[in-house]
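Hey, sorry to bother you again with one of my protein questions. A protein chain has come my way and I'm curious about its shape. I'm sending you its amino acid sequence along with the backbone structure tokens. I owe you a coffee for this, so here goes:
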Amino acid sequence: MSEEKTEFDFEKSLAELEQLVETMEQGELTLEESLKQFERGVALTRACQKALSEAEQKVQILTRNSKSGEPGELTAFEAGPDQTDNHAIR
């Protein structure tokens, strides 16, 4: 069985998060449904924050390389322990 890693779709995740917020703001969900939606929203928020953090890191690397006169090259970014899923919403 081959595992294919699907690429994260930031825009799709953000749209889903916005829809979750809209649904929850209507106040028609049960407590259980609200908690499930909230949990999904937290997961989406963390995934979006991680994607933004990685994009920011790539921009910083490219900017740093271009200032030194070298062509910018992207390398894989590994998040450190302080850059995991515990970011606050800004």
Remarks:
- DSSP finds two helices and no strands in the chain.
